[in-house]
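User: Structure please.
Assistant: Input sequence and predicted structure:
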Amino acid sequence: MSGSGLQTIALCKNFGALTVSNNVDFRLEAGARHALIGPNGAGKTTFVNLVTGVLRPTSGQLLLDGADITTLPQAQRVKRGLVRTFQITALFRKLCVLENVVLAISEREGIGGDFLRPAGRHRAIIEEAYDVLEKMGLAGDAMRPITELAYGRQRMVEIALALALKPSVLLLDEPAAGVPEGESVTIIEAIERLPERIAVLFIEHDMELVFRVAQRITVLVQGAVLVEGTPAEIAADPRVREVYLGEGRH
């Protein structure tokens, strides 16, 4: 077994008699681009909450780069390189783009509101923040307040904040949610620009994004893995078509 990346072993979560994650075996290889899809209520967000430590599993195991993180708090998982973005844009809206990224780097370095001291370290953080924005194609927006950006650009800033935390595993929670159709291509391009060393798992309903970016796709139904495979294998699988056609009838 490879020791790198993210792995879940027989992961279960029960709320009383209700099972919301049912023996989920999953592997995200180092550097992979992997999509998690499924109909509404399939348990996708619950699974990500278990992986990131928002929820504690009823049973099962979580491994990050071969180390057991099943009981590790959220903050410790972030420090180990497991970083998540959220469906709802979580930015400091009164600050400019650069200030948002500077704050993220400062938190990563454990200096928070004291990032102005010492001055040399402050300059290094600003330079790193600019570098992150350049990689994301956002350098031209560095001094613009978040409130002036189109929603698609705000989602890109959110990905930049996650990138500033230096993840080895990045979980993108519906990165294209709420983004107008004409702007979704910018999200796709932003994901494609992410460093190859980062393993990316994304929950997404936008199938254009999924089939363009993902190398592998896992389909979750009623808290359990229905099937996993390449985009071509998933597109051709009759079980997947049945799940989505069935959803469309309701």
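The chain is about 35% helix and 25% strand.
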